[in-house]
Amino acid sequence: MQVNSDLEPTVRIRELKKDRVNFVLENVDLAFANSLRRVMMADLPTVAIDTVEVVSNTTVLPDEFIAHRLGMIPLVSTNCDEAIRNNRDCTCESACEYCAIPLSLNVACSDNRTLDITSSHLQYDPSVFHNESGEEGDETAKRVENFGHPVGKNDPSVPPVLICKIRKGQELKVKCLAKRGLAKEHAKWSPCSAVAFEYDPHNKLRHTTYWYETDSRAEWPLSDNAREEEPPRDDEPFDFNAKPQRFYFEVETDGSLGPQEVVMKGLQELQRKLAILIHNLKAEQEPELNGALSGGGDPGMDQSGPQIWGGGWGNSAATNASPAAAGWEGSPAVTGGAAGWGTNPSPAGSGGWGTGASPNAGGWGTNGSPAARGWGSPAQQASGWNV
Amino acid sequence: MNAPNRSELFVLEDGEKAVEILEDTKIPNAATIKVVKQDHTLANMLRAQLLATPSVLFAGYKVPHPLQPYFILKIQTDGTITPADVLSQACNRLIGTLSTLEAKFKREFSFKDVEGAVVSEDPYGVPSTGGPTWAGGRDYLDF
Ligand SMILES: [Zn+2]
């Protein structure tokens, strides 16, 4: 498994557009590349409409239908982790300027024609708030001018999102609160509309099996990424030790965040997750240290200080709160032997997993152990364990 | 009606332990580490990094139930380092890889900024009318 540890990861951006970036990532392993993909899709905060108060709705669509459509509208979420706090963490009663964006919609049709209600009709409207405020903060100062507004509003080159069509005599009047959230809670908070991910376009590793009538090569078209790699020769023997090393990404955003921000924040979020785990491991081993940091959630929401793990590990100054976190380059801080793992009794005589004698025993697999080497197949999932 | 709050998937509850280390009683140098409110994103990356570490004999993870937001990671080492320490070492290595990658991405993005034309191109193929684009060399957070 020590394939990539000696090589530095590299990246090459093939195309960068306003709403998408296409890049090739090399010298990392599959798990790493996949975690980057997952984090960009599901772990970055954005804002989206979350509560809708219907004042009047005489359209043909029911209230919940409209509420759902409003939720799906992409809103500008630049620098979201600093520009707005989580509604659940705010000290206000229900919603305030620090934890929500007030938007309202008030459209009526008086002419004898069909009128399209679109995201462009959404107006920033502080009267939606009930005159309350949470603990003061600097969130509002960190916002771009159009933060929380529908993406592409006032930009003639971006067509607005259609919410409903109305006819003469019909009206729609709603008050909305847009809140910060994560795609883990609802997909409307995902900054990505799609993330394409591919490796091994020639299927040399045989991670997939093609169904075919007579000849799989003739029947399955190659992807464009196949041009980046040598096609396999007909007489080429299967390489049992080969590992995927080159990953093709295309990150497409819905406009709430730019593609550059999505990728950079994704990398930072992964580092934050790891840093928190280091901290919590340390706290678990030495309970007299400070309490646990919330493992999940999104950046900048914990009472324990938004900026503790703030971006730029390594290159920025030492802002790390935890001693364990400092200096990742060196060896890990050796803990004071609080829990004596090394002195663990009872050597595994009884066919435990260290010996790797029985690959199927106990479901613990043996992939990591030397004894397992003879087993050619990768055995991705041994008895429910991803090893 | 009685569905659990979806934020429970990623927000630690009051007094909930983020990490639990359970030493294995039958196998030397082995431990099961439970990490709460995290998923495959973190677990699989750690598993791969642990297997690339020579002192690790075994590393595997599972999410026992998709509705319970935690994973467990089983680690056995050769005795030169404890499972918990090898895990935080793996975390540190990954942070190192991520921050070099971050620097490389930053560089690549800045090249694309300088090349200019690419960014200002409208996603729908219409010549840009001067919407919000990133000027050359500007960081994406400067506004
Ligand atoms: Zn508030």
TrEMBL record, chain A:
GO cellular component, one term: RNA polymerase II, core complex
Entry keywords, A to Z: DNA-directed RNA polymerase, Transcription
UniProt-recorded Gene Ontology molecular function terms: DNA binding; DNA-directed RNA polymerase activity; protein dimerization activity
CDD domains: RNAP_II_RPB3
GO biological process: transcription by RNA polymerase II
Polar residues composition-biased segments: 378-387
Family matches, as InterPro entries: DNA-dir_RNA_pol_30-40kDasu_CS, DNA-dir_RNA_pol_insert, DNA-dir_RNA_pol_RpoA/D/Rpb3, RBP11-like, RNAP_Rpo3/Rpb3/RPAC1, RNApol_insert_sf, Rpo3/RPB3_RNA_Pol_subunit
Record keyword Cell membrane present: no
Compositionally biased tracts (Low complexity): 317-326
Keyword Cytoplasm: no
Ranges where the DNA-directed RNA polymerase RpoA/D/Rpb3-type domain occurs: 20-280
Gene3D superfamilies to which the protein is assigned, alphabetical: DNA-directed RNA polymerase, insert domain, RNA polymerase, RBP11-like subunit
Location of the region described as Disordered in the Swiss-Prot/TrEMBL record: 317-387
Family: Belongs to the archaeal Rpo3/eukaryotic RPB3 RNA polymerase subunit family.
Protein name: RBP11-like subunits of RNA polymerase
Organism: Neolentinus lepideus HHB14362 ss-1
From TrEMBL, chain B:
Molecular function, one GO term: DNA-directed RNA polymerase activity
Compartment(s) of residence: Nucleus
Cited Pfam families: RNA_pol_L_2
InterPro entries xrefs: RBP11 (IPR037685), RBP11-like (IPR036603), RBP11-like_dimer (IPR009025), Rpo11-like (IPR022905)
Keyword Nucleus: yes
GO annotations of cellular component type: RNA polymerase II, core complex
GO biological process terms on file: transcription by RNA polymerase II
Domain DNA-directed RNA polymerase RBP11-like dimerisation as annotated: residue spans: 30-102
SUPFAM superfamilies xref list: RBP11-like subunits of RNA polymerase (SSF55257)
UniProt KW keywords: DNA-directed RNA polymerase, Nucleus, Transcription
Protein family per UniProt: Belongs to the archaeal Rpo11/eukaryotic RPB11/RPC19 RNA polymerase subunit family.
Annotated protein name in UniProt: RBP11-like subunits of RNA polymerase
